[in-house]
Write a structure and sequence with these properties.
Elements lengths: L1 E5 L1 H12 L5 H4 L9 H14 L5 E7 L2 E9 L2 E7 L6 H15 L4 E5 L3 H9 L3 E9 L2 E7 L1
Parallel strand pairs: 4-5
Antiparallel strand pairs: 1-2, 2-3, 3-4, 5-7, 6-7
Length: 147
């Protein structure tokens, strides 16, 4: 697997292609945002990226030239990531996380909605640990993981 830094302008298409086949995504998504389609999720993700201000870095992950997924971060905060459904197998997920770690570095954090158990379990399997659980933001519970 390889990775390439992309611009904010390229982010929408990469996120869309990464999430397009994930019908379960709606049950894990931000409970403060009503979304009915992948396109609405993409637009909200773009809004979230902008809300983090400057110096957010965006990446796509590739395998033999095919898109595997994306991630973006700022400083030591992994803001968002997604892996295409067909690449959600043990070996690919390990390589995907290895790339995140290589790019972001050690001792980074990721904050997820408690209901996003799929992503929380993935990050724990990759060696991250829960630092703070059940803190409230906008009336919903979040979990902070650290590497």
């Amino acid at each position: 697997m390889t990775h390439e830094e992309i611009s904010y302008n390229e982010l929408a298409e990469v996120v869309r292609l990464s999430l397009i086949d994930d019908a379960d995504l709606f049950s894990f998504y931000d409970p403060n945002v009503l979304v009915k389609s992948i396109e609405e999720i993409v637009l909200d993700m773009l809004s979230k990226a902008i809300s983090h201000g400057e110096n957010v870095r965006y990446f796509k992950v590739l395998f033999s030239g095919a898109l595997v997924g994306y991630f973006f971060y700022k400083e030591k905060m992994l803001i968002s990531f997604g892996i295409k459904k067909q690449y959600r197998v043990r070996k690919c997920k390990k390589h995907f996380f290895k790339i995140i770690k290589q790019v972001v570095g050690n001792n980074f954090t990721c904050i997820l909605w408690n209901k996003n158990l799929r992503a929380i379990k993935f990050l724990i399997k990759m060696g991250m640990r829960i630092n703070v659980k059940d803190f409230i933001f906008n009336g919903n519970l979040l979990t902070q993981l650290i590497n």
